[in-house]
Amino acid sequence: MQAKLELTHRSLSSSRADYDRIHQRMMQELPQVLDGRVSYFEHCLQAAIEARVLYYRDCVQSLSWCVEQLTGTSGVAEDHELQTTSDKLLDEIRALSIVGGSAGNVT
Question: In the prediction, which pLDDT does 24 show?
Fold first, then answer.
């Protein structure tokens, strides 16, 4: 029984030493891991923001082109002018033979 108790104490001491060694190493390396994580995600976040900026810039350019095509000018037309122009364009599209005349009024 005494031999078993001594074996258990040696095993406990060995395990405690391993734990203390691993714990000490982890406490030294964990701040380095956290600092590295922040710098890694900083680049990812920057790339995501730049992608959104490019996307919305392209959307604004496309919308500006559409407004320019509808109004015939580079300025912004009034809402009723845009509605009148778009109604005329829709009437022309409805008049095409590939659309058919029974499509009804789309508003």
Answer: 95
At residue 32, the 3 state secondary structure works out as helix
User: What secondary structure letter does DSSP report for 76?
Assistant: P
Residues 93 and 99: their CA atoms lie apart, in Å, by: 7
As given in the structure block, the two tokens for residue 73 are: 């000018």
Q: Which residues contact 14 (CB under 8 A, 6 or more apart)?
A: none
User: Do residues 70 and 89 touch, judged by C-beta distance below 8 A?
Assistant: yes
Rounded Cα gap, residues 11 and 5, in angstroms: 10
Reported as a single tens digit per residue, the pLDDT across 41-75 is 888 888 899 999 999 999 999 988 887 887 766 55
* Helix 79-95 / helix 2-71 crossing angle, nearest 10 deg: 80
Q: What is the largest CA-CA distance in the chain?
A: 104
Around Cβ 30, how many Cβ atoms within 10 Å?
A: 10
